[in-house]
Every structure is written in C-alpha cells, then in structure tokens.
Write a structure and sequence with these properties.
The structure is a single chain. The protein is built from four helices and 22 strands. By secondary structure, it is mainly β. The strands form five sheets. The chain has a five-stranded mixed beta sheet. Strands 6, 7, 10, 11 and 12 form a five-stranded antiparallel beta sheet that branches. The radius of gyration is 21 Å and the shape is globular. It starts with 10 loop residues before the first strand and ends with a strand.
C-alpha cells in the first residue's frame, strides 16, 4: 500500500494510518465539501486497488452468492445520488478535555464533511441477489468487509429500506471516489456515524449477526457510562451489553466567529452548521452571545429544504445579534444549540455525556469572543 498525496491544508493527527481534519474556516466555504478537503479517518494503510480487477461479492443468509465487477455494479443498477454528511463519532473529542481526557484521536471540530455520493442502492443489489423477505430468513444485519480487513455492520431495517438510501457508492461529488475515501466502491450509510460507511468494500455479508471485530463488538465505538474509565479490565458482559454507536445525536457548531475573535462592530455575525443522525432534520438553532442568559433564533439556510425524516446532510445557519452596551469592552462566551425533528436537543455541558472513548460530544458549542 502506498498512501495517496494529501492536501497540505488538512490538519494531520496521524500520518500512518492517516487521520486528518478539515480546518474550521474551510468547513462552510461550500455546502458540499471539496474532495481534497474531506476529513480522513483510516484504521489501516490505504489499499491500492486496480479497478479492472475489482470484485465485490454479496453472500449470506437468504441470498445467492453473486460477484460483481465495478462495471457490472455501474451498469446493472440505476445510479442513485444522495447528499450525505459523514462525521467521525469522535468529532469534538478534544472538547471533553475540560472534563477529563478521553481515549483516542483528539479531534477538534473538523472530523466531518459532506458530499453528493452516487452509486447503486444496497437494497437493489440485495434484491438482485435474492433477498426478498429478511424477517422470514432471520436476517438482522448487513456486514461490510473492506479490502483493508476493517469490517462493520448496520441493521437490516436500514440496509433494506429504499428511504434509507444506503449506497454502494462509486462517485463522490461527480467524480470517481478518491483513493483516500474508498475507491473504487465504499458503503455510504446516510444518517450513521462514519465508521459504518466502510471504504474499499470487497464483500457484503447478509447475516443473523452483527460484524465481529473491534469496530462493532469491541470497545472502540461504544459509549460507556461515565464511571467506566478503565477499558483494559472491563468485564466481557459489559462490553457485549453496550450498543455500538450507529445514529449520532443532534449537534451544532459555530464556524464563525473564531475562538478568541475580536469584534469591532455593533453586531455579531454568527454562522455554523447543525446535523442529527437517522435523517432527523433540524427544526431550530438558537444562539447566545452572553453565556446563555438570553437566546436568539438563527436563520436556517442551505440544507433546511431537506425532508425532515430524510435529512442526510447538514443544515447551515446564520444569525446577526446586536451587542448590548453592557458587553462592550468585555469578553463573553457565545453558544449555539440545535433541536431536531424529533425534538431532541443538545446537552448543556460535556460533563453530562463524558465517556472514556470520547464519542458523540454534542454539548452546546462554546467560544470566547472579545467585544470592543
């Protein structure tokens, strides 16, 4: 394996395997993140795959084994396009540091990106391979197995739903998927955390059981209670009982202003994005410039037109808040919080959701701003 050349604007956490995030000031430059600025999350070296020799095998319960070439995948099934935000479940892990340091890569707020993915619907492919009645055949999960031997799974209810929009994708923002992001074929599971969107897929396995391995059944992507701080000696029954992260909770972040920005005008312009897993659209974003004493409703912009039950991508928001006289010449904490279509809202403090793996930090986002 030879790693691809990467954009030098990315903030590198590791080089081998690569883990890198998009700088926050680039996050909202466009609604669809340019491919070269997409965050990178790898568990192993990047496999180099010859598209002419690529094979994808589908097999398992209630399913005849079929192997597809890349060309067959493109020609046998209608291409379906979906705008999808993919976020690492460890995004904002470093924001837990004020409570207690969590284990894992110290992502700031750039472990997230959005693209228009194109490919074959997983449901179409499964039906072609003979899957007709998952419940009758005891099918509970669909596993994705990667060329790099990483594997993860999703529930059959998601995989076998047309409105679930799960793809075996071969295009990203109108181009071939870049090597770093799964070329030639990756799973795209809208509304699920990044790790379920397995790259470089070589096998789709229809099963009664979820995938084996650390990414599904181990501790890596499970959110444990705050009293659990030692994963080395955690009893097996507690690990097994914990559910793997699938749909992320509702969250929102402030992209502008920057932390510690100096504001010279009479009005503070704020902008950011909001997102919730499971296709739950964003119904409201509120901002505060006085540490949460008073709140203002932001305007929902790009992404707000998505169907509230099928909102797979982020929603941009903006707000203009007049700076009161009592804040002039002072520093203040500016905040944002979002509410999704199921009326879930963000927790106020990270301390209430701290977990040893640092997953799903969706606490109110806070920045300090200095008003002249």
């Amino acid at each position: 394996a030879v790693d691809p050349i990467r954009d030098d604007r990315l903030i590198m956490h590791n080089s081998a395997p690569c883990n890198a995030e998009i700088p926050e000031h680039y996050i909202m430059e466009s609604y669809l993140t340019p491919n070269e600025l997409w965050f990178v999350r790898h568990h192993n070296p990047v496999p180099i795959i010859d598209p002419n020799n690529y094979k994808l095998t589908v097999k398992g319960k209630g399913c005849k084994e079929v192997t597809f070439s890349l060309q067959e995948l493109q020609e046998k099934f209608p291409k379906h396009e979906v705008d999808v935000t993919i976020q690492c479940s460890g995004n904002r892990r470093s924001h837990f540091d004020g409570v207690k340091k969590a284990q894992g890569i110290p992502w700031n707020m750039g472990g997230v990106s959005t693209a228009r993915f194109g490919g074959a619907r997983l449901k179409d492919v499964l039906e072609y391979c003979g899957v007709k009645d998952p419940e009758k055949h005891g099918i509970n999960h669909v596993q994705f197995i990667s060329q790099d031997e990483m594997l993860a799974s999703i529930p059959i209810e998601k995989a076998f739903s047309y409105s679930g929009d799960v793809l075996l994708a071969y295009e990203m923002n109108g181009e071939e998927i870049p090597t770093d992001h799964g070329y030639p074929v990756r799973a795209v599971v809208p509304g699920y955390v990044g790790v379920r969107n397995v790259k470089w897929v070589k096998e789709v396995f229809v099963s009664e059981h979820e995938a084996e391995g650390p990414w599904q059944r181990g501790v890596a992507y499970k959110g444990f209670a705050s009293n659990i701080t030692d994963l080395q000696h955690l009893p097996t029954h507690i690990i097994e009982r914990a559910a793997p992260v699938q749909e992320p909770p509702v969250t929102s972040l402030i992209v502008h202003p920057a932390h510690n920005a100096k504001v010279h005008s009479n009005t503070l312009e704020m902008k950011g994005w909001a997102y919730s897993g499971g296709g739950r659209g964003i119904v409201r974003v509120e901002v505060s410039i006085d540490g949460g004493k008073s709140w203002h409703t932001a305007e929902l912009k790009e992404g707000s037109e998505q169907k509230l039950t099928r909102a797979w991508a982020w929603t941009f928001w903006s707000a203009h808040v007049e700076i009161p006289k009592e804040l002039r010449g002072k520093s203040s904490e500016v905040l944002c919080r979002a509410t999704d279509a199921s009326y879930n809202s963000q927790p106020e403090h990270a301390s209430s959701i701290w977990n040893v793996r640092g997953l799903c930090n969706t606490a109110w986002h806070r920045k300090t701003v200095h008003f002249d």
